[in-house]
């Protein structure tokens, strides 16, 4: 119990110091809550998930859920831009595969001979990206998801809804108040 508290406190400090260094890229002052994490994974069918991708892992709250719930045959590919945060995740989750830039999603999958992905979970701070950067990443996401595949993203503002609607067949939005700051969760199907 005390160990868990210490490691959570450590992760909060690590996250906040990354935010102080690169506020635009990190995009938040604290890791996501367990309430937001539950909502992000609500529709993931772990039995049917052979490949899962996480974009913008931070200190690993979603990564931890992936590591716990995925089947042993499922490949998990985790993208985190910050070298220090990524290095720490690599030390903690030895069976997952780590990469830097979410913009290289398509290229990375090709290099690993993976033709499509079942689920993509995103913590990327799209609000801080230019329209072009967001479009580029959403194009990568859409191209790599299998037909009927699931994309789940959260944001602190409801601004990305229109862009997601242009790309995906079905988009629904929910609001999680028990998070700092409160967040909108977008669940999208290709
Ligand atoms: C708001 S934090 C979310 C972290 C974590 N998923 C959570 O919910 O607590 C966004 C994360 O996305 C990462 N990030 C930003 N741009 C990225 C990119 N182009 N590729 C990969 N990661 C990126 C940041 O370094 C940061 O760790």
UniProtKB/TrEMBL annotation:
CDD domains: AdoMet_MTases. It comes from Polycladospora coralii. GO terms for molecular function: methyltransferase activity. The keyword Cell membrane does not apply. This is Phospholipid methyltransferase. SUPFAM superfamilies: S-adenosyl-L-methionine-dependent methyltransferases. GO terms for biological process: methylation. Keywords: Methyltransferase, Transferase. It comes from the Bacteria. InterPro entries: SAM-dependent_MTases_sf.
């Amino acid at each position: 119990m005390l160990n868990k508290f210490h490691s959570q406190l450590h992760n909060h400090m690590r996250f906040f110091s990354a935010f102080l260094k690169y506020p635009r890229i990190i995009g938040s002052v604290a890791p996501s809550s367990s309430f937001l994490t539950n909502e992000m994974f609500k529709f993931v069918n772990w039995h049917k998930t052979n490949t899962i991708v996480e974009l913008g892992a931070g200190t690993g709250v979603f990564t931890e859920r992936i590591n716990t719930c995925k089947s042993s045959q499922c490949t998990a590919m985790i993208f985190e831009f910050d070298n220090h945060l990524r290095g720490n995740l690599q030390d903690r989750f030895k069976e997952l595969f780590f990469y830097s830039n979410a913009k290289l999603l398509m290229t990375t999958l090709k290099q690993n001979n993976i033709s499509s992905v079942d689920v993509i979970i995103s913590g990327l701070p799209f609000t801080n990206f230019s329209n072009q950067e967001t479009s580029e990443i959403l194009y990568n996401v859409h191209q790599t998801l299998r037909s009927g595949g699931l994309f789940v993203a959260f944001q602190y503002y409801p601004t990305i809804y229109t862009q997601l609607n242009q790309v995906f067949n079905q988009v629904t939005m929910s609001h999680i108040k028990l998070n700092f700051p409160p967040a909108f969760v977008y669940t999208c199907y290709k």
